Amino acid sequence: RSIKLKNVALESMVLERTKELDRANAQLRQADEMKSNFISMVSHEIRTPLGAILGFAELISDKIERIVLPNLDLNDKKVQKATERIGRNLNIILAEGDRLSALVDNLLNISKIESGKMDWRNELLDISELIEQILLITKPIVTKAGLTIQADVEADLPKVTGDKDMLTQVFVNLISNAVKFTKAGWIKICAKRSGHEILVSIEDTGAGIPEAHLPKVFDRFYKVEPSPAGNKGNTGIGLGLYICAQIIEKHKGKIWAESQVGKGSTFYFTYQIPMPLRDTTDE
Ligand code: ADP
């Protein structure tokens, strides 16, 4: 009888604890949702004025180049110096603006992905077309950094399905990193078939990542410190690769990196090739 009583008491205690845990979980979920909404709201609010700042800075830069410069008296040393300084400062505004823009895009994507509110599209994608577009998008930042970029894509790769904008974000993040952490040399994108998958790699001749850090670089907010590239490259907040990993995971692929300090890094990811539907018309 006393054992029975003990069991009843124990059961009611377990029930009580389970209820407490459920309540705590619900509170955590609510707090998490509030955080995601907040990040998404702030990022949206930053995006609009930032777009205007960058747009006007580009307009000023263009006007100076086309109208002001050809009409300047460059024999006047003062004018020459001031013009050079304006040009340098404008370039800083544009570069920092671009950096902030990339950060805001990443924050927006993270909050959407983590809150489960992301509308993943399932488009049929031609990898070689996608890579061609990526080369066009990234060429300006690569050239500005004094680097070169080239692609080696196997002919007739099968199409894959996925969210084009999100997969573009993966390429852009990986290539931006390659640019940030490479002082001199080249970046190479390769895509080839490997069994039931397509294997993509992005290789650079940059500072590299020490072996102990390699498995952790895909963690949220993880940065290699001190950076083998020095502080100049390490301007991000450790979100770029985390986002890549989230996006690739959602596409049922894998992502990893190989690297040698002082020689360079290669980031790999895979896409699943969709199974062809079996033709049953003749059966
Ligand atoms: P961040 O946005 O701060 O660059 P990431 O998540 O993109 O963050 O990268 C995490 C860290 O991994 C970086 O801080 C950097 O130290 C290292 N890293 C990423 N890509 C490269 C690369 N191509 N070459 C060298 N180090 C890299």
Automatic annotation (TrEMBL):
It comes from the Bacteria. Coiled coil: none annotated. Residues 41-275 form the Histidine kinase domain. It is found in: Membrane. This is histidine kinase. It comes from Desulfosporosinus youngiae DSM 17734. The lineage of its organism: Bacteria, Bacillati, Bacillota, Clostridia, Eubacteriales. The chain holds residues 827 to 1109 of 1109 of the full protein.
